[in-house]
């Protein structure tokens, strides 16, 4: 039996995986010795579309594959038994590129066909639920407590503790909610887990339901993730057919039903009280806590909310014991964490590492370093709530406490790498623009304060910065942090504060010297033509505003008053005769 | 005529929701939007009356969430991702160039009603940034040249054919 797998998660599909899958399907039609399967994200997004060919246990991973290469692989490898070395990423003997990675959450992602429950069951799926149902709810909670699992959505609150609170709330109706409103720009871990292994999330929710005494659950998923929603709907249907969701699950007294609720595009709904308001059919605006959801949550009933990745860990922990999880990680941060590597990095994709691994190893050993041989400048972690970590802190350990000390956070797991061409003031402005847009408007400091900070940052990037601006930013930041109800406002100033802390010189260059060292802020850069110019007229042709003058074979000139700084000439020039300063 | 037709279609959509609850509002609005492309005052009024909330509340709900269109969008909706990874890879410049090429600003629709230019929060395809979605199809690693040729294709398809 020869198995061919194609990764058809969103990244793969966007890169053309469906065409590759169809090609293999066409070629293998009526061939009973070949089994063609779809699977989730294999994690190596930078070489999508990816296909795996397994001949008698010997696996070869190919990428990037297109229809032509698929045909080649089919003829030479599948039919001819000879791997097409040119496109091989790795094979069983060099064990993929998962060295330094430790896969618990992603144990099945990219391995199983997410649309087949039997694939999940064959890999110990729902074994954790079976074991949980044989124990008392309090024993289940104790195992989760012992595992040291902390919330993977960003805040890092101990999961077992949360369950304990919800368990001790007395009420005949309780709810479990899975927060799949992954809104942090630069983060796509939850999407990949939902698309690649939806049952692991459902299993975690079922175990939680049993542990806290709930019989109904909601998955609140972003509508921007249509494939994740489709896979969840299918998975719930299949689990119901096997009596893994529904009444008297597996012959026990425990009944549990799961619904899907689509989010409608509001970042603030990732905050738990806003999320619950949204499920109830209201505008998603956070409210004061206490009361905490464990006491009064969805429709005022006790509710436990965890993130996708947190739930995906639970089945594994129950199935293999607390020790299988807490043997990894540091003293206070146990287990593994999935990160989405993106930005100016060679091997962008999804990685799962042991907590406590130094950042440098993630970026250089797993991520393959910086694109195009450029110089590393910073890594942005935790999205709009996080911060930028500079090069001299690259040996910081990836755990909750160590990252917090730098001013950034583990957050949900986005890791966007910035190189020398990224302007830190512009990055700070980018995030402020984001939070300012996404503020629900309830708290004055978050609503108006972020707007004022954004105005100051715009002013600095436009070359109109004043010396008092930095002090004003710090002052506003402190006030927004102290006077906002929810984490959105409380953390909104972080991107500004960390860039000010580590890259104040760039702010000063913008404000005092009216220069953008990275050459990003258009108002602060000028394009000029140097003596290398041979008068080829290429730049003159591409200039959209006719700012360039000069006859053939004579050095050209740029009229600075007309130039709109679009950079078209800079890109067009083949002999570096245009300077960007 | 048009109004009666709209009204009938909305009735049909609402049939799905027996004993409507307030929490059905989001899905009912989305169903209607999938049918009409956007939500106008008549549709909002009709749905809110059925669900049992005031029209003001339904409007407040729909205007809070970015998914709902309250104006008629173009036939092709271009969503350029504005996530961090895309931003770092030059999404802002890309948006500027496309704005110039289409002659409209972000959030606007071309006068011929063909293309609406939107930006989107992170679409989660960060490793292949910059990302563009046209209606339901995702394009990755795009640049202004690619996007301009996509626009040309759409224009040719709709005006010459």
**What top-tier CATH class of the largest domain in chain A fits best?**
Alpha Beta
- Can you identify the CATH superfamily of the largest domain in chain B? Glutaredoxin
Q: What strand order characterises the main sheet of chain B?
A: 2-1-3-4
Instruction: Provide a count of the helices of chain B.
Output: 7
Shape of chain B: elongated
Question: What would the average pLDDT of chain B be, to the nearest integer?
Answer: 91
Helix content of chain B: 40-55%
Largest interface: A-B, 57 and 43 residues
Discrete helix count of chain A: 22
Task: Describe the overall structure.
The complex is a heterodimer of chains A (581) and B (161). In chain A, the strands form 5 sheets. Chain A has a 5-stranded mixed sheet, covered by helices on one side. A 5-stranded mixed sheet of chain A has the order 11-10-14-12-13. Chain A has a 4-stranded parallel sheet with strand order 8-7-6-9, with helices on both faces. In chain A, 39% of the residues lie in helices and 16% in strands. Chain A is an alpha/beta fold. Chain A folds into 5 domains: 89 residues, Glutaredoxin (3-Layer(aba) Sandwich); 210 residues, NADH-ubiquinone oxidoreductase 51kDa subunit (Rossmann fold); 84 residues, Roll (Ubiquitin-like (UB roll)), CATH 3.10.20; 90 residues, NADH-ubiquinone oxidoreductase 51kDa subunit, iron-sulphur binding domain (de novo design (two linked rop proteins)); 55 residues, Alpha-Beta Plaits (2-Layer Sandwich), CATH 3.30.70.20. A 4-stranded mixed sheet of chain B has the order 2-1-3-4, covered by helices on one side. Chain B is built from 7 helices and 4 strands. Chain B has 161 residues and is an alpha+beta fold. The chains are: A alpha/beta (581), B alpha+beta (161). The interface between A and B is large, with 57 and 43 residues.
């Amino acid at each position: 039996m020869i198995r061919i797998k194609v990764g058809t998660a969103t990244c793969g599909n966007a890169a053309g995986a469906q065409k590759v899958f169809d090609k293999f399907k066409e070629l293998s039609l009526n061939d009973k010795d070949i089994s063609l399967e779809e699977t989730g994200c294999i994690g190596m997004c930078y070489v999508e579309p990816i296909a795996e060919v397994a001949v008698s246990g010997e696996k070869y991973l190919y990428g990037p594959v297109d229809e032509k290469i698929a045909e080649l692989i089919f003829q030479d490898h599948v039919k001819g038994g000879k791997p097409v070395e040119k496109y091989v990423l790795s094979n069983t003997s060099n064990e993929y590129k998962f060295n330094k990675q430790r896969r618990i959450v992603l144990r099945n992602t990219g391995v199983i066909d997410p649309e087949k429950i039997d694939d999940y069951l064959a890999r110990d799926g729902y074994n954790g639920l079976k074991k949980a149902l044989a124990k008392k709810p309090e024993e289940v909670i104790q195992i989760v407590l012992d595992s040291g699992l902390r919330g993977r959505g960003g805040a890092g609150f101990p999961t077992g503790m949360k369950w304990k609170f919800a368990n001790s709330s007395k009420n005949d109706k309780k709810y479990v909610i899975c927060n799949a409103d992954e809104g942090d720009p630069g983060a796509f871990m939850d999407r990949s887990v939902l698309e690649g292994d939806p049952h692991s999330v459902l299993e975690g929710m079922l175990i939680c339901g049993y542990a806290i005494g709930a019989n109904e659950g909601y998955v609140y998923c972003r509508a921007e993730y249509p494939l994740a929603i489709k896979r969840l709907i299918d998975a719930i249907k299949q689990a119901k057919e096997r009596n893994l969701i529904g009444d008297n699950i597996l012959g026990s007294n425990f009944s549990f039903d799961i619904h899907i609720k689509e989010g409608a595009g509001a970042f603030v709904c990732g905050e738990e009280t806003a999320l619950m308001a949204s499920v109830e059919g209201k505008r998603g605006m956070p409210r004061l806590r206490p009361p905490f959801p464990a006491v009064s949550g969805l429709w005022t009933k006790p509710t436990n909310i965890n993130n996708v990745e947190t739930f995906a860990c639970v089945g594994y922990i129950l199935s293999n014991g607390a020790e299988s999880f807490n043997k990894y990680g540091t003293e206070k941060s146990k287990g593994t964490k999935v990160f989405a590597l993106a930005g100016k990095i060679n091997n962008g994709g999804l990685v799962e590492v042991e907590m406590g691994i130094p950042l440098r190893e993630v970026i250089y050993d797993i991520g393959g370093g910086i694109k195009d041989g450029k110089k590393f400048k910073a890594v942005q972690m935790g999205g709009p709530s996080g911060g930028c970590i500079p090069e001299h802190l690259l040996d910081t350990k990836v755990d909750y406490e160590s990252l917090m000390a730098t001013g950034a956070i583990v957050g949900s797991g986005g890791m966007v790498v910035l190189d020398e061409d990224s302007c830190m003031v512009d990055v700070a402005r980018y995030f402020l623009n984001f939070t300012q847009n996404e503020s629900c408007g309830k708290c004055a400091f978050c609503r108006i304060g972020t707007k004022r900070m954004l105005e100051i940052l715009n002013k600095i990037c436009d070359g109109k910065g004043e010396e008092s601006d930095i002090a004003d930013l710090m002052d506003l930041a402190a006030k927004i942090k102290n006077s906002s109800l929810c984490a959105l406002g409380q953390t909104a100033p972080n991107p500004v504060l960390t860039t000010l802390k580590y890259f104040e010189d760039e702010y000063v260059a913008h404000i005092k010297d009216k220069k953008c060292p990275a050459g990003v802020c258009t108002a602060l850069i000028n394009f000029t033509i140097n003596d290398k110019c041979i008068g080829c007229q290429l730049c003159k042709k591409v200039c959209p505003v006719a700012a360039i003058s000069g006859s053939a074979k004579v050095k050209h000139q740029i009229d600075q008053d007309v130039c709109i700084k679009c950079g078209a000439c800079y890109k067009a020039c083949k002999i570096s005769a245009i300077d960007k300063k | 005529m048009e109004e009666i037709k709209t009204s009938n279609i909305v009735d049909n959509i609402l049939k799905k929701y027996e004993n409507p609850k307030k929490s059905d509002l989001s899905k009912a609005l989305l169903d209607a939007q999938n049918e009409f492309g956007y939500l106008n005052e008549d549709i909002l009024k009709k749905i809110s009356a059925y669900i049992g909330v005031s029209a003001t509340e339904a409007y407040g709900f729909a205007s809070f969430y970015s998914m709902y269109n309250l104006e008629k969008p173009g036939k092709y909706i271009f969503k350029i991702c504005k996530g961090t990874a895309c931003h770092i890879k030059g999404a802002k410049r890309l948006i500027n160039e496309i704005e110039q090429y289409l002659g409209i600003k972000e959030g606007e629709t071309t006068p011929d009603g063909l293309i609406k230019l939107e930006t989107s929060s992170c679409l989660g395809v960060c490793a292949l940034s910059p990302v563009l979605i046209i209606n339901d199809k995702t394009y990755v690693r795009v640049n202004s040249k690619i996007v301009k040729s996509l626009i040309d294709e759409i224009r040719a398809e709709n005006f010459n054919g």
